[in-house]
Amino acid sequence: MQLQSYLEERRGLVEDALDRFIPRTDEPPERLHESIRYSVLAPGKRIRAILVIAGAEAVGGQGRLVLPTACALECIHAFSLIHDDLPCMDDDDFRRGRPTNHKVFGEAMAMLAGDALLALAFELIADNAQTAPDDRVVPVMKLISRAAGTAGMVGGQVTDILSEGKEITADELQAIHTRKTAELIRASVLSGAMLSGASGRELAAMEMYGRGVGLAFQIADDILDVVGDEARIGKPVGSDARQDKVTYPRLFGLKESERRAGEEVERAIQAIASLGTAAEPLREIARYIVERDS
Amino acid sequence: MQLQSYLEERRGLVEDALDRFIPRTDEPPERLHESIRYSVLAPGKRIRAILVIAGAEAVGGQGRLVLPTACALECIHAFSLIHDDLPCMDDDDFRRGRPTNHKVFGEAMAMLAGDALLALAFELIADNAQTAPDDRVVPVMKLISRAAGTAGMVGGQVTDILSEGKEITADELQAIHTRKTAELIRASVLSGAMLSGASGRELAAMEMYGRGVGLAFQIADDILDVVGDEARIGKPVGSDARQDKVTYPRLFGLKESERRAGEEVERAIQAIASLGTAAEPLREIARYIVERDS
Fold first, then answer.
1. Residues in chain A within 8 Å Cβ distance of B32
2. CATH of the domain at B155
């Protein structure tokens, strides 16, 4: 299969849907909606949304029926980036070559835009009940809210901050990565499958796939922070090191980090071996996640 | 009926449930859970949670079956207070006589505690599917996410900030109040009724009740900011005026503000006239909202 055209097409679907689902800038409060759109509609890989779609397709579902949840994951991702960049957090002025949200709209507006995006995400998940049964939507809400909260992304962010400047073990680093990034990646692929009526066996396979890909994704991010081209990833390379954050390359070196990311990807691909050709995009995406250059 | 003992008993139910539903401080990340508990379990009236319960009871439902959603509303309320108090927003050092969350836990942790509380709220709503049908939980998720987001609380907060120091009309002030406070109050009473299987006629009555009480609640807050006893409300009296915020008393004077709040309460009580004795707590709560002294 042609991964690039697959990603291209799904990304187009997602971005059209985001544009429809997110409040317009001619509706009040206009400035808030500008701030929200500035971040959510900024160029991005849409990897979480595409995983929702690919998760649906892998079990015989249709991508367009899970678009609201796919967009919800992008809203949660955008919310986390806006809040991470704030002065009280990483204090970043640029993201992917553009000024960060608070540099353009001010701190108060940026924080509120993030808050609004998190609320909007759950509105979109509720809206997915228009194309999926209620008894599938409710468990997806549960899954995604947990993946975003103290057991997931926000919890991982806290542990990451508290570990700055400290010695931590490989297990502790993996626990941070799992919460901070992997849980939401796992929730993406699982929610697409759940909304499409996946069987218990299929969900178990997706679960393992999601864990492996999620962890590989964060290791790859750590590696890109060391070796990435500044222009490509749009923030100063090595910024994690300057902030004294523990990363995979710092703990294991580059080579061993790459080996571990590759191992997670292989494990993810094996987990969905039984799913047949419909899961081919998921396999390609797993490989892409460690090979991407931004 | 004895309103005080009614409020007392329901508040006890809510606070026990909050203590059960909110992650413990011996689970990681411990510091985040301390920060969350510091704010959510701080003394409070629990008016939103009690309105969920009273909304359920008014249509023949049971309070204990809607407790997760009642607690979700308290989580959203606590999230909004933590974020409002941050330096980039109102920059308040005290709330109800205690240091604000960021004064104790630092800005980053306070912001993340707020974020986690919003995610937890949606997890709790999803959990309410254990005691209510999925096809009632999904619309409640939609209602509450909208009431919290750009069409509700966060949107009202933005408009409030942007209007500081400007002349605004009575209609604009009402629009701010409706979004900032009334929408979530309305969502509280409606969600209790929806989860309990209220009829269309009952929901229409609750809708009107919620709007009236929500608006009266915010007007009463504005009035308390002028006339309240500093020790009672726990922040410097007149702090809204110092921040150059437009309030009801500033726009209409105290007497006219009190008259308007009373009018909204009467409208709310009339809206639920047909609901019989089961709605008596809602009527008493409506009166209490404008008569309270904190």
1. 150, 154-155, 158
2. 1.10.600.10
Q: How far is CA B105 from CA A36, A151, B36, B110, in A?
A: 28, 19, 10, 6
Per residue in A74-97, pLDDT tens?
999 999 999 999 999 999 999 989
- B contact residues 123-162, partner A, Cβ 8 Å cutoff: 123, 125-127, 129, 134-135, 137-139, 141-142, 145-146, 148-151, 154-155, 157-159, 161-162
Please tell me the distance in Å from A291's CA to the nearest CA on chain B: 32
What ipTM, to 2 d.p.?
A: 0.95
CB A205 within 8 A of CB A271: yes
Question: Which residues is B95 bridged to in the sheet?
Answer: B98
**B246: containing domain:** 3-291
Token look-up 């608006």 returns B215
Q: Could you give the dihedral angle defined by the CA atoms of residues A209, A222, A75 and A3, in that order, rounded to the nearest 10 degrees?
A: -50
Instruction: Read off the pLDDT of residues A199-218 as tens digits, 9 standing for 90 and up.
Output: 999 999 999 999 999 999 99
Count of structural domains within chain B: 1
CB contacts of A115 in chain B (<8 Å) are 79, 83, 114-115, 118, 154
Residue-by-residue DSSP string for A3-16: HHHHHHHHHHHHHH
Query: If contacts are CB pairs under 8 Å, which of residues 14-43 in chain B contact chain A?
Result: 23, 28-29, 31-33, 36
* Cβ within 8 Å of residue B214, ≥6 positions away: B178, B181, B182, B183, B184, B185, B186
Q: What is the largest CA-CA distance in chain A?
A: 51
SS3 string, B239-283, reads HHHHCCCCCHHHHHCHHHHHHHHHHHHHHHHHHCHHHCHHHHHHH
Phi first, then psi: what are they for A94, rounded to 5°?
-130, 150
Nearest Cα neighbor of A111 from B164, B79, B47 is: B79
**Residues A116-173: pLDDT tens digits?**
999 999 999 999 999 999 999 999 999 999 999 999 999 999 999 999 888 899 999 9
Residue numbers of A between 157 and 176 with CB closer than 8 Å to B: 157-159, 161-162
